[in-house]
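[recover] target loaded
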């Protein structure tokens, strides 16, 4: 695998982790706001799917 492609995949992984941190931060601030809590939990579920799918890709290509 080319270094350029590995760098691109590393950036994607970084972005997924940034999304996760932001969603967790919002969820932590959602006290008293049930809609925010519910929606951030849904966002986190979507992010978890991204992590699982991306982990599969990394496993296939061996990084």
């Amino acid at each position: 695998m080319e270094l350029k492609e590995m760098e691109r995949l590393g950036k994607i992984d970084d972005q997924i982790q940034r999304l996760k941190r932001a969603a967790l931060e919002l969820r932590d601030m959602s006290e008293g706001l049930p809609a925010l809590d519910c929606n951030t939990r849904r966002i986190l579920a979507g992010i978890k799917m991204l992590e699982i799918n991306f982990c599969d890709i990394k496993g296939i290509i061996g990084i």
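[recover] notes: The first helix runs from residue 3 to 28.
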